[in-house]
Design brief:
Layout (H helix, E strand, L loop, with lengths): L9 E6 L2 E5 L10 E5 L2 E5 L7 E3 L1 H8 L8 H5 L25 E6 L4 E5 L6 E4 L6 H4 L3 H19 L8 H17 L15
Antiparallel strand pairs: 1-2, 3-4, 4-5, 5-8, 6-7, 7-8
The protein binds zinc ion (ZN) (2 copies).
Length: 198
């Protein structure tokens, strides 16, 4: 059978006699690992840049979960030091292979980036420094302060400035808030979430 297998999607595994399709991280090309948290299946860049991939069904599921339900991912997924993530490049959708991800939210300082595929609707999420709160600070007060600063940048400076008149952008902004709400331990979440108050 003639078929074209895209470069970064390869058949590498063998599960019960079936070939397994492996998706690779759009930022560092590490193989993504499927992790299930609170009934939400996440593809995680374990041992690479530590980012996450959610398809649209999983996004719907995480929206139904309590705040922080997915917070264990921040500890589970190991971020390797010195991984090159090609921040200046646009990333190709790890699922569609043919589409460039649209960058909704980005901070170089926080190493944070949230992109979406316009074709399959999947989300690529790199929470950046949020995942390093535990390891970087020794006191809870310092962690809370760092989290507060983080969310001022993400929610007030980035998400709140996304175009709310455009329905698609507003929906994307709401989804980003939901994703961060799912991934963040509740003690580090701001009391007021921006989009919820629109
Ligand atoms: Zn990666
Ligand atoms: Zn896609």
């Amino acid at each position: 059978m003639d078929s074209v297998i895209p470069v970064i999607m390869e058949f590498v595994g063998n599960e019960n006699g079936r070939l397994v399709l492996v998706m690779k991280c759009p930022a560092c090309e590490n193989e993504l690992l499927k992790i299930s948290v609170a009934g939400v299946n996440v593809l995680a860049c374990e041992g690479g840049c530590g980012s996450y991939w959610f398809d649209t069904l999983q996004i719907k599921r995480l929206m139904e979960r309590l705040p922080g339900a997915g917070a264990s991912l921040l500890k589970t997924v190991r971020r390797a030091d010195g991984v090159k993530t090609f921040r200046n490049n646009q990333h190709i959708c790890p699922k569609c292979q043919s589409t460039l991800l649209y960058r909704h939210c980005f901070s170089r300082e926080l190493e944070m980036e949230v992109d979406q595929c316009s074709k399959c609707g999947g989300w690529w999420v790199d929470v950046g420094t949020l995942a390093t709160l535990e390891s970087r600070y020794s006191t809870e007060a310092d962690r809370k302060q760092a989290a507060e600063d983080y969310f001022i940048t993400v929610f007030q400076n980035k998400v709140a400035n996304m175009n709310r008149v455009n329905h698609d952008t507003l929906e994307a902004a709401q989804t980003i808030v939901e994703i961060f709400t799912f991934l963040t331990p509740p003690i580090y979440l701001p009391q007021k979430l921006p989009i919820k108050d629109y």
